[in-house]
User: What shape does this take?
Amino acid sequence: MFKLPQLPYAKTALAPFLNEEQMSFHYDKHHKAYIDNLNKFVETDPSLKGKSLEEIILSSTGGIFNNAAQIWNHTFYWFNMAPASEKSEPTGPLMDAIKKDFGSLDELKAKFVDGGVKTFGSGWIWLCSDAAGKLSLVSTSNAAVPFTNNGPAPLLVADVWEHAYYVDYRNLRQKYLETFWTHINWNFVSENFATKKVRDLTKTMV
Ligand SMILES: [Fe+2]
Assistant: This one.
């Protein structure tokens, strides 16, 4: 059985970027619903018992995949943000890779925000790394993750489902994404770039 992971900060800590009402709906309602739904599948399907979340994502389709992947995506999203008071910057090998593949941090931001704005409907905009450290931006629809079919490892993600921003930003997805950019936990992103592997999030929820 999976448990809703603890947020790494208080639900008020990201305000005014994301206010408490936005956080409460997103975390306590949306994220928790995916956990409850997946646990119902686990209860009734013996083949899922004992599997990590990542193993379920890589071996399932349909409702099981959708709920498992949404749990993974949301957990990663919470961890890759930080309060403005804990501002961080990309440094070292990660910054070198950003300069090599995007020219500058500003260029990466512009392309990330643009990719999120242009993600049609519900989905996610990701910064990823392949095993050799080559960075890329990936837009996924609905629950999809970048790392199925031997795809690249996620470093950073923004949720662009309307439920992620509509309480605070209404239809202004671009403004939400630009403000997201000032609340990135770059230490988390650097850790992901150091391994270039899909992060084990199961340990945060068992
Ligand atoms: Fe979401």
Remarks:
- The longest helix spans residues 20-44.
- Residues 26, 30, 74, 159, 161, 163-164 surround fe (ii) ion (CB under 6 Å).
- The domain at 20-82 is CATH 1.10.287.990 (Helix Hairpins).
- The first strand starts at residue 123 and ends at 129.
